[in-house]
Design goal:
Helix 2 packs antiparallel against helix 3. This protein is an alpha+beta fold. It folds into 2 domains: about 200 residues, DnaJ domain (Helix Hairpins); about 100 residues, HSP40/DNAj peptide-binding domain (Sandwich), CATH 2.60.260.20. The protein is built from 8 helices and 12 strands. The longest helix is centred in the N-terminal third of the chain and has 15 residues. A hairpin with a 2-residue loop joins strand 7 and strand 8. Strands 1-2-6-5 form a 4-stranded mixed sheet. Strands 7-8-12-11 form a 4-stranded mixed sheet. The chain has a two-stranded antiparallel ribbon with strand order 3-4.
Length: about 325
C-alpha cells in the first residue's frame, strides 16, 4: 500500500490553514476537472486532488492523518505496522459542505485509514428549527479484535483516540476507554453499535451512537475469508505419502487430523463447522505444505541417498517438458 502525501498533492505546507487547503483544492479542481481540462491524466489527478481535500478539510480526519504521518518517513515505502489504522474515532461531520469529486473512488490508503464512506450507514446530522435541538452526531471507529474472541465472545476494554476541536478550530487527540461486549460469531467488516456513545445531544436531545467497524488482528497461523478459516499445516514427505494422523491448530485449540495416503502439497483438508460460529457455520481448511527435513548427519544423508536410489526413475520436472 502506498502512503499518500495529501499535502504534496494539494501543494500546501503541513502547517496550512483550513482556508489555504480550500483555496488550493478549488484551484486544482478547476485545473484538472475532466470536463474542461486538457492536462495529461486530468481525471486521475482530479481524483487525487479530491481525495486529498476530503482527508485534510475535515479537522478530525486531518488530525488522524497527521498522527500517522509522524511515523512515516517521507520518500520511503509505506509499510503499515499492525493496527496502524485502528482506534481513531470520527464524527464524519466534515466541514458541513460537499464539494465536486467527494464521491470519487478513493484509494485503499484512504479507505483503510478512515473506514467506510463515513456516514453511509449512520443517521445524518440535522439543524432543527427549534435552535439546533436535533439528533447528535453518530461517531465511528475501526478496531481490531483477536480471532478467538469472535469464536467465544468476550468482554473487552478498548482505547480510542478521539479528535476534539476547540472554539478556535484547533484539534487535539484525546484518549478514552470503553468496555464492549464482542458477540460470538462476529465477522471482519461488521459493525457494532454502541447506543449513546457518540456525540452528546444538545438541548435535551439524545446522544448519538458509536459504530465500531471490526477487523481481526493479524495472526501468523490463520487466514480468514468470510466465515472460513485457513491454516498452513507443514507435513513431512512420509506423512503425505503414507498417510498419518497429525496435530493441527485451530483457533479453539489443537485437533487430531487424518492425512490420507498420497496427499500432495496444497491439498486442503476440510474440518466442517470449525470456522467462525454463527447461524451459518464456517469451515476450517488445513492447507498441506511439505516440509523437507535437513540432512545434517551422515545417517540422514544416507537416508536421502537411499530415497534417491529407490525413486531413480522419478523426475518431478516431467510436467515442465515442452
Amino acid at each position: 500500500m502506498d502512503f499518500k502525501d495529501y499535502y504534496a498533492t494539494l501543494g500546501v505546507e503541513r502547517s496550512a490553514s483550513h482556508d489555504e487547503i480550500k483555496r488550493a483544492y478549488r484551484k486544482l479542481a478547476r485545473k484538472y476537472h475532466p470536463d474542461v481540462s486538457k492536462e495529461p491524466a486530468a481525471e486521475t489527478r482530479f481524483k487525487e486532488v479530491a481525495e486529498a481535500h476530503e482527508a485534510l478539510i475535515d479537522p478530525e480526519r486531518r488530525a488522524a492523518y497527521d498522527e500517522i504521518g509522524t511515523r512515516h518517513e517521507r520518500g520511503q515505502p509505506f509499510e503499515p505496522p499492525p493496527g496502524w489504522n485502528s482506534g481513531f474515532e470520527f464524527s464524519g461531520r466534515g466541514d458541513g459542505a460537499r464539494h465536486p469529486g467527494d464521491d470519487a473512488a478513493f484509494s485503499e490508503f484512504f479507505s483503510s485509514l478512515f473506514g467506510r464512506a463515513q456516514g453511509a450507514e449512520r443517521r445524518p446530522r440535522h439543524a432543527a428549527a427549534d435552535g439546533g435541538h436535533g439528533p447528535a452526531d453518530d461517531h465511528h471507529a475501526k478496531i481490531e479484535i483477536d480471532l478467538i474472541d469472535a469464536y467465544r465472545g468476550a468482554l473487552r476494554t478498548i482505547s480510542l483516540r478521539m479528535p476534539v476541536v476547540d472554539a478556535q478550530g484547533r484539534v487535539t487527540l484525546q484518549d478514552r476507554q470503553l468496555d464492549i461486549n464482542i458477540p460470538k460469531g462476529l465477522r471482519a467488516g461488521q459493525q457494532l453499535r454502541l447506543a449513546g456513545q457518540g456525540a452528546a445531544g444538545r438541548g435535551g436531545a439524545p446522544s448519538g451512537d458509536l459504530y465500531l467497524e471490526i477487523q481481526f488482528r493479524p495472526d501468523p497461523r490463520f487466514r480468514v475469508e468470510d466465515r472460513d478459516i485457513y491454516v498452513r499445516l507443514p507435513v513431512a514427505p512420509w506423512e503425505v505419502a503414507l498417510g498419518a494422523t497429525v496435530t493441527a491448530p485451530t483457533p479453539e485449540g489443537d485437533v487430531q487430523l487424518t492425512i490420507p495416503p498420497g496427499s500432495g502439497a496444497g491439498r486442503k483438508l476440510r474440518l466442517k463447522g470449525r470456522g467462525l460460529p454463527g447461524r451459518q457455520l464456517g469451515d476450517l481448511y488445513a492447507v498441506l505444505e511439505i516440509a523437507l527435513p535437513p540432512a545434517t548427519t551422515e545417517a540422514q544423508k544416507q537416508a536421502y541417498e537411499a530415497l534417491a536410489s529407490a525413486f531413480a526413475h522419478y523426475n518431478p520436472r516431467d510436467t515442465l517438458a515442452a
